[in-house]
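User: Structure please.
Assistant: Input sequence and predicted structure:
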Amino acid sequence: MTALAPTLQAFFTDRLMGQRQASPHTITGYRDTFRLLLGFAADRTCTQPCELDIGDLDAPLVAAFLDHLEADRRNGIRTRNNRLAAIHSLFGYAALRHPEHAASIQRVLAIAPKRFERNLVTHLTDHEVDAVVAACDRSTWTGRRDHAMIVLAVQTGLRISELAGLTCADVVLGAGAHVHCVGKGRKERRTPLVPLTTAVLRV
Protein backbone atom coordinates (compact mmCIF):
# COMPACT_ATOMS: atom_id res chain seq x y z
CA MET A 1 0.00 0.00 0.00
CA THR A 2 1.27 3.47 -0.87
CA ALA A 3 1.42 6.34 1.62
CA LEU A 4 -1.31 8.31 -0.15
CA ALA A 5 -4.31 6.09 0.61
CA PRO A 6 -3.97 5.93 4.43
CA THR A 7 -2.98 9.60 4.56
CA LEU A 8 -6.04 10.63 2.56
CA GLN A 9 -8.33 8.52 4.73
CA ALA A 10 -6.80 9.88 7.94
CA PHE A 11 -7.14 13.41 6.57
CA PHE A 12 -10.90 12.95 6.34
CA THR A 13 -11.49 10.94 9.52
CA ASP A 14 -8.92 12.47 11.89
CA ARG A 15 -8.30 15.95 10.53
CA LEU A 16 -11.58 17.11 9.00
CA MET A 17 -14.11 15.16 11.05
CA GLY A 18 -12.23 14.69 14.31
CA GLN A 19 -10.07 17.77 14.83
CA ARG A 20 -11.76 20.45 12.75
CA GLN A 21 -15.31 19.08 13.00
CA ALA A 22 -15.88 20.27 9.45
CA SER A 23 -19.43 20.68 8.21
CA PRO A 24 -20.97 18.09 5.86
CA HIS A 25 -20.81 20.67 3.04
CA THR A 26 -17.06 21.12 3.57
CA ILE A 27 -16.44 17.37 3.65
CA THR A 28 -18.48 16.90 0.48
CA GLY A 29 -16.53 19.64 -1.28
CA TYR A 30 -13.19 18.13 -0.27
CA ARG A 31 -14.35 14.66 -1.29
CA ASP A 32 -15.33 15.90 -4.75
CA THR A 33 -11.98 17.67 -5.13
CA PHE A 34 -9.97 14.52 -4.47
CA ARG A 35 -12.29 12.36 -6.54
CA LEU A 36 -11.57 14.64 -9.50
CA LEU A 37 -7.85 14.92 -8.72
CA LEU A 38 -7.32 11.17 -8.37
CA GLY A 39 -9.23 10.50 -11.57
CA PHE A 40 -7.14 13.08 -13.42
CA ALA A 41 -3.89 11.72 -11.97
CA ALA A 42 -4.84 8.15 -12.85
CA ASP A 43 -5.43 9.13 -16.47
CA ARG A 44 -2.21 11.15 -16.66
CA THR A 45 0.04 8.53 -15.07
CA CYS A 46 -1.78 5.39 -16.30
CA THR A 47 -1.89 4.27 -12.67
CA GLN A 48 -4.85 2.96 -10.72
CA PRO A 49 -6.02 5.46 -8.06
CA CYS A 50 -5.32 2.94 -5.29
CA GLU A 51 -1.70 2.68 -6.47
CA LEU A 52 -0.97 6.42 -6.62
CA ASP A 53 1.60 7.73 -4.15
CA ILE A 54 2.10 11.22 -2.73
CA GLY A 55 5.02 11.76 -5.08
CA ASP A 56 2.76 11.13 -8.08
CA LEU A 57 0.73 14.21 -7.16
CA ASP A 58 3.59 16.60 -7.76
CA ALA A 59 3.36 20.32 -8.51
CA PRO A 60 3.28 19.98 -12.34
CA LEU A 61 0.42 17.46 -12.13
CA VAL A 62 -1.56 19.58 -9.67
CA ALA A 63 -1.03 22.66 -11.86
CA ALA A 64 -2.22 20.69 -14.90
CA PHE A 65 -5.26 19.55 -12.91
CA LEU A 66 -6.15 23.16 -12.07
CA ASP A 67 -5.82 24.12 -15.74
CA HIS A 68 -8.04 21.14 -16.62
CA LEU A 69 -10.74 22.43 -14.27
CA GLU A 70 -10.86 25.77 -16.05
CA ALA A 71 -10.29 24.66 -19.64
CA ASP A 72 -12.17 21.35 -19.82
CA ARG A 73 -14.70 21.48 -16.99
CA ARG A 74 -15.36 25.21 -17.47
CA ASN A 75 -14.98 25.91 -13.76
CA GLY A 76 -14.58 29.51 -12.68
CA ILE A 77 -11.60 30.91 -10.81
CA ARG A 78 -13.42 30.72 -7.47
CA THR A 79 -14.04 26.99 -7.93
CA ARG A 80 -10.46 26.49 -9.06
CA ASN A 81 -9.19 28.27 -5.95
CA ASN A 82 -11.51 26.27 -3.69
CA ARG A 83 -10.14 23.03 -5.15
CA LEU A 84 -6.60 24.30 -4.62
CA ALA A 85 -7.39 25.19 -0.99
CA ALA A 86 -8.55 21.61 -0.38
CA ILE A 87 -5.35 20.26 -1.96
CA HIS A 88 -3.23 22.61 0.14
CA SER A 89 -5.02 21.43 3.27
CA LEU A 90 -4.29 17.78 2.47
CA PHE A 91 -0.65 18.42 1.64
CA GLY A 92 -0.15 20.51 4.77
CA TYR A 93 -1.46 17.55 6.76
CA ALA A 94 0.70 15.10 4.80
CA ALA A 95 3.84 17.17 5.43
CA LEU A 96 3.72 16.26 9.12
CA ARG A 97 3.20 12.57 8.47
CA HIS A 98 5.57 12.03 5.54
CA PRO A 99 8.66 14.25 5.74
CA GLU A 100 10.29 12.02 3.12
CA HIS A 101 8.05 13.82 0.60
CA ALA A 102 8.78 17.28 2.04
CA ALA A 103 10.30 18.75 -1.14
CA SER A 104 7.43 17.61 -3.37
CA ILE A 105 4.84 18.73 -0.83
CA GLN A 106 6.46 22.15 -0.49
CA ARG A 107 6.28 22.72 -4.25
CA VAL A 108 2.56 21.90 -4.25
CA LEU A 109 1.96 24.23 -1.31
CA ALA A 110 3.75 26.98 -3.25
CA ILE A 111 1.09 26.96 -5.99
CA ALA A 112 -0.72 30.27 -5.55
CA PRO A 113 -4.45 30.89 -6.00
CA LYS A 114 -5.49 32.96 -8.97
CA ARG A 115 -6.52 36.55 -8.50
CA PHE A 116 -9.93 37.60 -9.77
CA GLU A 117 -12.17 40.62 -9.78
CA ARG A 118 -14.82 40.66 -7.08
CA ASN A 119 -18.16 41.98 -8.25
CA LEU A 120 -19.86 44.54 -6.07
CA VAL A 121 -22.71 42.94 -4.12
CA THR A 122 -25.77 45.11 -4.65
CA HIS A 123 -29.13 45.14 -2.91
CA LEU A 124 -32.75 45.38 -3.96
CA THR A 125 -34.40 48.78 -3.89
CA ASP A 126 -37.58 49.31 -1.87
CA HIS A 127 -39.59 49.18 -5.11
CA GLU A 128 -37.97 45.88 -6.12
CA VAL A 129 -38.58 44.37 -2.69
CA ASP A 130 -42.23 45.40 -2.82
CA ALA A 131 -42.56 43.83 -6.28
CA VAL A 132 -41.06 40.51 -5.14
CA VAL A 133 -43.27 40.38 -2.05
CA ALA A 134 -46.38 41.30 -4.05
CA ALA A 135 -45.70 38.51 -6.56
CA CYS A 136 -46.67 35.88 -3.97
CA ASP A 137 -50.24 34.61 -4.30
CA ARG A 138 -51.36 34.70 -0.69
CA SER A 139 -54.66 33.02 -1.51
CA THR A 140 -52.76 29.70 -1.60
CA TRP A 141 -50.79 27.91 1.11
CA THR A 142 -47.59 27.89 -0.93
CA GLY A 143 -48.02 31.58 -1.71
CA ARG A 144 -48.38 32.43 1.98
CA ARG A 145 -45.32 30.30 2.73
CA ASP A 146 -43.25 32.04 0.05
CA HIS A 147 -44.46 35.45 1.22
CA ALA A 148 -43.43 34.71 4.80
CA MET A 149 -40.01 33.41 3.75
CA ILE A 150 -39.32 36.41 1.51
CA VAL A 151 -40.37 38.91 4.19
CA LEU A 152 -38.20 37.10 6.74
CA ALA A 153 -35.24 36.98 4.34
CA VAL A 154 -35.50 40.67 3.48
CA GLN A 155 -35.64 41.70 7.13
CA THR A 156 -32.97 39.37 8.51
CA GLY A 157 -30.61 38.79 5.57
CA LEU A 158 -30.68 35.02 6.08
CA ARG A 159 -29.19 32.84 3.35
CA ILE A 160 -31.44 30.40 1.50
CA SER A 161 -29.84 27.43 3.27
CA GLU A 162 -30.39 29.15 6.62
CA LEU A 163 -34.04 29.83 5.82
CA ALA A 164 -34.61 26.25 4.71
CA GLY A 165 -33.00 24.95 7.89
CA LEU A 166 -35.20 26.89 10.31
CA THR A 167 -37.53 25.03 12.65
CA CYS A 168 -40.44 26.31 14.73
CA ALA A 169 -38.15 26.35 17.76
CA ASP A 170 -35.83 28.81 15.99
CA VAL A 171 -38.51 31.50 15.72
CA VAL A 172 -39.71 33.40 18.80
CA LEU A 173 -42.78 35.57 18.17
CA GLY A 174 -43.57 36.70 21.72
CA ALA A 175 -41.71 39.24 23.82
CA GLY A 176 -38.27 39.88 22.35
CA ALA A 177 -39.27 38.39 18.98
CA HIS A 178 -36.26 37.05 17.10
CA VAL A 179 -35.04 34.29 14.82
CA HIS A 180 -32.13 32.03 15.73
CA CYS A 181 -29.94 30.29 13.17
CA VAL A 182 -26.58 28.60 12.79
CA GLY A 183 -25.08 29.88 9.57
CA LYS A 184 -22.00 29.44 7.44
CA GLY A 185 -18.95 28.40 9.43
CA ARG A 186 -21.28 27.24 12.25
CA LYS A 187 -21.71 30.85 13.36
CA GLU A 188 -24.71 31.21 15.65
CA ARG A 189 -26.74 34.39 15.67
CA ARG A 190 -30.08 35.80 16.80
CA THR A 191 -31.75 38.52 14.75
CA PRO A 192 -34.57 40.65 16.23
CA LEU A 193 -37.83 40.73 14.26
CA VAL A 194 -39.78 43.90 13.56
CA PRO A 195 -43.55 43.89 14.25
CA LEU A 196 -44.43 43.62 10.53
CA THR A 197 -42.37 40.45 10.10
CA THR A 198 -43.74 39.01 13.33
CA ALA A 199 -47.30 39.61 12.14
CA VAL A 200 -46.60 37.88 8.81
CA LEU A 201 -45.12 34.84 10.55
CA ARG A 202 -48.11 34.54 12.86
CA VAL A 203 -50.50 33.99 9.94
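The chain has a mean pLDDT of 91.
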